[in-house]
Design goal:
By secondary structure, the protein is an alpha+beta fold. It is built from eight helices and nine strands. The strands form two sheets. Strands 5-9-8-6-7 form a five-stranded mixed beta sheet, with helices on one face. This is Similar to Saccharomyces cerevisiae YGL232W TAN1 Putative tRNA acetyltransferase. GO terms for molecular function: RNA binding.
Length: about 280
């Protein structure tokens, strides 16, 4: 009996280690890092995917419907052989990370394309990642959710706290980081338009289980890219744009957001608590 008990304990330990290894946040993704209550990562993942989906249909209903209709027409018109080839390539090369998630393992590429959100436990305490798919813009979605929480004084999630959008992810090397930065920042800071505004900006890097790029290197590289033309300048207090950088293991994600401070740094729990306190003071 004692031996059997020991075996069971070993089995549990192996399962726990496998769970904590987490899924990778792959290059070329967009999504939202969500901080949550400790020990509630799995519950938060399931809950927040449903909440994001509800919000998305409220905010972008007609656009999502058009996307699904276009996708259906594309599938109906695609040759069967071509569909099979794409599926195999996708299964082997592009969707390998999702096979680590039991909820994603047996879904076809066509089924995944119809899902606007996929949740991942990434092996980091109190943090999960929600991958978004087109036509969802993670920055716009997060800002809308924060504004709605602020306006209504209600919070739909029990476990979620800060929502950090990343417009695109890349490989966390010096070259990969610069390429990612050019892709994300140029449309905002160097659009090529004669009406390009001059922005004041700040940079907020967050590093988790990451030792490839240093904080100073990240800030210096971004400042060089943004300030090379168009009159932009760094201002840590009165900024127009906040550049968010999320580094996790070998992945790096980036976005540019407005209203960062007025929306409590995108922390819906703090927005909710502040709204409640404001109501109590009336």
């Amino acid at each position: 009996m004692a031996k059997r008990k020991g075996d069971n304990n070993n089995m549990g330990s192996n399962k726990k280690s496998k769970k904590l290894s987490g899924a990778n946040v792959e290059p070329g993704w967009s999504g939202i890092y969500v901080t949550c209550v400790r020990g509630k990562e799995a519950a938060c993942k399931n809950e927040i995917v449903r909440i994001f989906d509800d919000y998305a249909h409220e905010f972008y209903g007609p656009e999502l419907q058009r996307y699904l209709e276009d996708l259906k027409a594309e599938e109906e018109n695609a040759p069967a052989a071509e569909e099979k080839q794409v599926f195999i390539e996708d299964l082997v090369a592009q969707e390998i990370a999702e096979l680590k998630d039991a909820n994603q393992a047996y879904k076809t590429r066509e089924e995944k394309k119809k899902e606007f959100f996929s949740g991942y436990e990434i092996g980091c305490e109190c943090v999960i990642f929600i991958r978004t798919r087109k036509p969802i813009d993670p920055v716009d979605l997060v800002l809308r959710i924060c504004r709605d929480t602020q306006k209504t004084g209600t919070k739909r999630s029990r476990y979620a706290q800060r929502l950090t959008p990343v417009s695109l992810t890349g490989v966390a090397t010096a070259e990969g980081f610069r390429k990612l930065a050019e892709t994300v920042l140029n449309p905002i800071f160097h659009s090529g338009s004669p009406d390009q505004p001059a922005y004041k900006f700040a940079i907020r890097p967050t590093l988790r289980n990451h030792s490839i790029l240093g904080r100073d290197e990240i800030i210096k590289t971004l400042a060089e890219i943004v300030c090379r033309s168009d009159g932009h300048s760094v201002d840590l207090k009165q900024y127009d744009k906040m550049i968010i950088v999320e580094c996790y293991k070998s992945s790096i994600g980036m976005s540019v957001v407005d209203e960062f401070d007025s929306l409590e740094r995108l922390n819906i729990q703090q927005i909710f608590e502040k709204a409640q306190n404001y109501g109590d003071d009336k």
